[in-house]
User: Fold this.
Amino acid sequence: MYLRSGKSKRTAPESKKSFQIFEIEQNIDEISSDESTGINSENESCESSMSSDLEESNMTESDGESTEIDESTNEDEDANDDWLDVEKIPEIFDFNGCEGVKQNWPSNIAPFEAFSLIFDNVLVEKIVKWTNHKAKILRSSRTSRQSTMRMWKDTDAQEMKKFLGVCIVMGNVKMPSLRHYWATNFIYNHPFFGRFISRNRFEAILRCLSFYDNTDDTSNRLHKIKNVVEHIVTNIQEIYSPGRNLSLDEALLLWRGRLFFRQYIPNKAAKYGIKLYELSTPNGFILNILIYEGKGTVYNQSSSHAHGVVQKLMDPYLNKGHVVYIDNFYTSVNLAESLLQQKTHIVGTLRKNRKFNPKEVINKKLAKGESVWKRKGNVVVGKWKDKREVCMISTYHEFKMVNWKNSRGIESMKPNIIIDYNQFMAGVDRADQMMSYYSTPRKTVRWYIKLFFHLFDMCIWNSMIIFKKVTEMN
Assistant:
């Protein structure tokens, strides 16, 4: 999320039409009819879980997870004698990474090749196996004579790619419902879709689409999608190396159906959905992802839920000198000190009621433009007032007030920590915004299908960034 006193600019859509993924064969014979599944092409975009860090109300617990966090302050636990005036320049860890694609690829790489680095043939073959397995189960169950599942034929990798390719085109061509894509009337007739796959076959594959089998641990709440998440994240981390700056934020995937770990966030437009924790680069390349599984989820036995989320997402990138920008849902003095021990810097907004915050900073009343900053070791905590007070924490910055010009050309003095936070924190928000413009259809009665299509959109978005870096295209 941003810390801005004015409105933020929306990035213009980057057309996905020019980024075609699949080379679809021509002159395919229509395949026999199958059952309907009731999916619409209405776009229900992934809405970033954003809240204003400038509001005083944001200093309380948010997002319906107050039971997961135990970072509130206690008068007897503050070690305020250790906080000193900011004089020492913090120790900056050397960054030993190199941003970009890890392998050398030719500058004329095709878009489909870039996409296949993340969503590879191995994953496609697995999805084919899982889908055919589910179709076999559905066929063996009691079905009526009219059920088209009786005529099911096993799919293969080639047909699965066509199915996914059609889903991509649906993101560019908006229709009122799924069946309108195969309509033959004057208004909605679009020959593309019927040319490559029949409506009944598309609906049959969609109904049988699966990402697990009987060998998976069903006690895991995410077992229906876990295999896909792990495969995609592994591929991403094997092919791409981020730069020094990272951002960690959460997103909300709209879901109104019944689900144990569905989140209710009353101050959001969607209100109900699946909560995702994401780690990204400042330009929006998603590096790691965690799906919130509901109360009782433990990522680290010895720390709070928020601390465990950061530790889990950052685990592949610790001890490399990265700087991670996060909001006040996660930050605390304990987290900052813990990451310092793992050669990782932290920058973010800070809630006033966190444990071990310096009282002199939290309790001091400020006039507009004033600030107060304290240091304990390499941890700097401060407060600055513009329209309202903002608390910040950093293990990377030497505090400075610098001249800053806003989008209207008005100059003012602002802390360097806040300027950098606004610059590098927007990665997850940018990715969600760009994926929403041409998202694949995912209105379905099964939560894991909707989540799969969100991951599929993420693969397309990440592969576009890889494609542009390798080909040096703007």
